[in-house]
Amino acid sequence: MALNYSRARRRRRWLEMTQTELADQIGVDSTLVSKWENGHRQPDATELEAWAKALKLPVSRMFSDAIDPPDETGSFPVIGETHPEPVEALQ
After folding, report:
1. Which fold, 5-64+72-90?
2. pLDDT tens digits along 1-12
3. Number of C-alpha atoms within 13 angstroms, CB side, residue 62?
């Protein structure tokens, strides 16, 4: 199964993070994050784990094509927290 790069990009944007902020959390260069999100380079296992953790996703969700449904409050699921932004604001 292939990584879902567009999911990772959407998730980062949904969390209101720049590529630079994400890269700082993971401990890599922002150009590397750009290459991952555009599918030009695959992260190694350690990078993938850190990437998923920074995006508050289980690693398995980095491979899924399924769309995360909003919960009953209109927020999308995030490991450990609920983002307050309603679904309408994301459209």
Report:
1. 434 Repressor (Amino-terminal Domain) (1.10.260)
2. 688 888 889 899
3. 22
Q: Is the dihedral of CA 9, 13, 14, 15 positive or negative?
A: positive
Q: Tell me the CA end-to-end span of the chain in Å, nearest whole number.
A: 28
Backbone angles phi and psi of 23, in degrees to 5: -60, -40
- The three-point CA angle 52-20-29 to 5° equals 80
Q: Which two tokens stand for residue 61?
A: 């969700």
At which residue do the structure tokens 């980062």 appear?
Answer: 12
The segments of the chain whose pLDDT lies below 50 read 71, 79-91
Distance of CA 66 to the CA centre of its chain: 14
